[in-house]
Amino acid sequence: MKRICVLLLLIVVCSSAFAQTETVGSIAGMIKSDLFKNQGRIKAASSSLKQVEKMMLYDEYKKDQWVPFLINFVIGAGIGSFVEGDTQGGTIALIGDLVGLGAVVLGYTSYYSQIYSGSYTTKGLGTMTIGYVVLLGTRIFEIIRPFTWTASYNSTLKGSLNYIDSISLSPSLENGMAGVTLSYKIKYN
Known about the structure:
Blueprint: H1 2-34, H2 39-45, H3 51-61, H4 66-74, H5 79-84, H6 87-116, H7 125-160, E1 167-174, E2 177-184
Antiparallel strand pairs: 1-2
Helix pairs in contact: 1-2, 2-7, 4-7, 6-7
């Protein structure tokens, strides 16, 4: 009889552990496919997870903004945003760089074709200036975008997982009385 009880208990524990692993795997798949579209489904599925499992999922799938920032800063064209997974920001930056570069080239060729034909004119200088302004604006966008998108992504991930990482209990001593203090930290990315 004891063997049967132990066997049943072992089956229940193993099936529970397998079910939790299956849930973690399905949530990981939803995060990988598209966090923003699957936000509601992830929230519903993560309600049965333990805080440790939520922490592991959050730590595995949270984004870091520094590599995309450096790629956007050094190379440009929104490549860092594409690397990060931000296709909208990468597309905006790529189009901005192409339009700005195209305006600079068009203005340059227009200006120098007039100069080489023997007439002094300012034709093309305005187009070149607009191109440089667009390139500067796009570069500023490319520098800022990884930080704002990463903050949004990580916040959505944390909210979808119902994950709270900043609550802690710590011992305290106040007026000679020992106790426990509940503290909560708010982090800004």
